[in-house]
């Protein structure tokens, strides 16, 4: 994947990690623009290539009454407005074959959720749009197995593909990041570390996923030290009241300090 070919990407020659960041789900226009404005300000200051992230719908829910979205096209139009307002690329995840063509009209990067990354028809539909594809590693898959998912994309004559590690299931209610997987996956695609989803505590008896946001900097630092190409960090100005994944999201107020520390670490690593 050539980062510089992503539409509207900035600072691609800064030798920094790139960042996919934003709310878990698009809850409305005002909140999306508010989060994007803050993250754009921070990433411009730190010269971090930035892609705004927001799910236009949430299909992988524990309970039937969980928030799934505000309407597909309504949310996608908000993603387009974010892109046009701040001149930045956007990424959203898709869950069904028909989502690929629909979402591709509005965003620059299509993301395949971890639970669905083995679904060949979905991966192929995404790849055939010609968009950049982000394949999230299944919590049940080895790093080596992700090469086959990448090959599905490249076999569709689409070389714009990256992989994202979001932890591996450890028992029923925990995820562990195996940092040995980063160099393994970097052999066949740029590799992103999904910091916040790696700190989820799934399968809680309440049907609401828990999390460990206090460990965000610990995991992020380890990823940067191990030469990860990009970081994925979900953030919200009010995580406690976010409609999806609030338990593991980073409070937007803490993002600048976190990224400043990570950029400093990256500069040190680049000198080694």
Automatic annotation (TrEMBL):
Entry's EC annotation: 2.5.1.55
Cellular component terms per the entry's GO annotation: cytoplasm
Record-annotated membrane-spanning stretches: none
Record-linked InterPro entries: Aldolase_TIM, DAHP1/KDSA, KDO8P_synthase
Keyword ATP-binding belongs to the record: no
Organism: Christiangramia sediminis
Family annotation (Pfam families): DAHP_synth_1
A Gene Ontology molecular function term of the record: 3-deoxy-8-phosphooctulonate synthase activity
Source taxonomy: Bacteria, Pseudomonadati, Bacteroidota, Flavobacteriia, Flavobacteriales
Originating gene: kdsA
Catalysed reactions, as listed in the record: D-arabinose 5-phosphate + phosphoenolpyruvate + H2O = 3-deoxy-alpha-D-manno-2-octulosonate-8-phosphate + phosphate
Protein's recorded name: 3-deoxy-8-phosphooctulonate synthase
Top-level taxon of origin: Bacteria
DAHP synthetase I/KDSA domain boundaries: 8-267
Similarity comment: Belongs to the KdsA family.
